[in-house]
Design goal:
40% helix; 11 helices; 15% strand
């Protein structure tokens, strides 16, 4: 079908998005057969992705995957990937002309956004909160602060929207935080944006994985656009940490950093003071419109 289409229609360039990297291979074959310049977008890595080892493929299949990946590097005129760390990872195995395109956010989602001040101290998380994101030390810090400063107990509220793993619920129970917690279940994206309006602090735990340094959840950019303080739980060398702290919109701690989390939360809850919080006026550089214009520029340069 694609061959027939190309016989009757002029195509100046090809853009593919993977995974699935079947898309990547199809784009490569079309580029090779019809001599059309091709941009290969790696939203997630291929053989370097954190779940690659869990596919349980044999040695022969692994060789095929890696050979195809190298063929992609030789064929694509341009490669984009979702984070700076993953850019370096791709380059380390032969990726050429690699640039970063973030997930970004849609400005129209914030057309009616209006930040609100509320009496409670609301900590909000929207999305999957799985076993690999269980913030148990963070929960223990909140419990400790409530014990030390009972006034916190009258103000704090944890709002968790989305699927919450049983291990996380058990951690909340262990630290006697269930009465401060609202498990909201699955809610529409528009409601998530509305929850940002009322939140005092946005929680962003990064999944614990081998390549977590490059893992940037798409919701990060919506959080940045909200202008609300962000608390990241993730690796010290993580790209999310770099983005949030460079934009002066929050701070990042490793999951087990009890001292750092205690100090941060004490200031946040008692003094309404957030370390490193001075929202940037340049967040719109992460908007889909700006990021799409970068893709368009890459495609134009390839054609020229």
């Amino acid at each position: 079908y694609i061959d027939r289409y190309l016989e009757n229609n002029q195509v100046d360039a090809i853009l593919t998005d993977g995974p699935p990297h079947t898309n990547t291979v199809i784009g490569m074959r079309i580029s090779q057969k019809h001599n059309i310049p091709w941009l290969a977008d790696f939203q997630d890595p291929w053989t370097q992705v954190d779940y690659y080892g869990e596919l349980y493929i044999g040695k022969r299949a692994d060789r095929i995957h890696r050979a195809l990946e190298q063929e992609v590097f030789q064929t694509a005129k341009k490669i984009t990937v979702a984070s700076p760390s993953w850019k370096k990872d791709l380059e380390s195995i032969g990726g050429k002309n690699v640039d970063v395109i973030y997930y970004g956010y849609d400005e129209t989602d914030f057309s009616e956004f209006s930040a609100k001040q509320v009496d409670s101290f609301i900590i909000f998380h929207g999305g999957l909160l799985g076993q690999d994101r269980n913030p148990e030390v963070f929960f223990s810090v909140i419990r400790e602060l409530i014990n030390l400063h009972p006034v916190m107990g009258s103000k704090i509220k944890l709002k968790l929207a989305g699927e919450v793993d049983l291990t996380v619920k058990n951690s909340l129970k262990k630290h006697h935080l269930l009465k401060y917690t609202e498990l909201m279940g699955m809610i529409p994206r528009k409601q998530v944006i509305k929850e940002y309006e009322k939140a005092s602090l946005l929680l962003l735990p990064i999944n614990k994985a081998d390549n977590a340094a490059g893992r940037i959840p798409g919701k990060l950019f919506e959080m940045l656009r909200s202008g609300k303080p962000i608390l990241v739980l993730g690796p010290e060398n993580g790209d999310v940490k770099s983005i949030v702290e460079n934009e002066y919109q929050g701070y990042s701690y490793e999951y087990g950093d009890q001292i750092g989390l205690h100090s941060f939360m004490k200031n946040a809850m008692l003094n309404q003071s957030y370390y490193n919080y001075k929202p940037s006026n340049n967040i719109r550089k992460y908007s889909n419109k700006i990021l799409t214009s970068k893709i368009a520029m890459y495609l134009n340069n390839m054609v020229q």
